[in-house]
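Objective 1b. Sequence-to-structure analysis of Large ribosomal subunit protein bL9.
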Amino acid sequence: MEVILIQDVKSLGKKGEIVKVNDGYARNFILPKKLGLEATKQNLNDLKLQKAAEEKKQKELLDEAKEQAKKLEEITVKLSIKAGEGGKTFGSVSTKEIASAVKEQYGFDLDKKKLQLSDPIKNAGSYTVPVKLHPQVTAEMKVKVEAV
């Protein structure tokens, strides 16, 4: 019997796959536990429509991420850090501070987890910070840190 999996089933397949299983396994385990549906014409058509809708949604998310990447690459975020004599700074600039500065200065809601800062910024100067907006889209945002 062919079955369309609704959920991931260990050692059988992932959600959305069509797998061939024994009739008893399907009737006694997969169908009663709602892990899959019988592969009828109606169910196969529904699966095809769901996959098309999911692909469309993913494409829209990718396009939205590309637009946001263009906007982020054009801006320069300005931050200040306290400094003592001789230019020695106190503290550092973290991703949380950069994200809040972007929201405050430009109105973008940017998740601090998307900023890929290897180490916190501890010196004044200009930096480029990679922002991973989508698995396929990474933007380079400019950050200017001034000593106060």
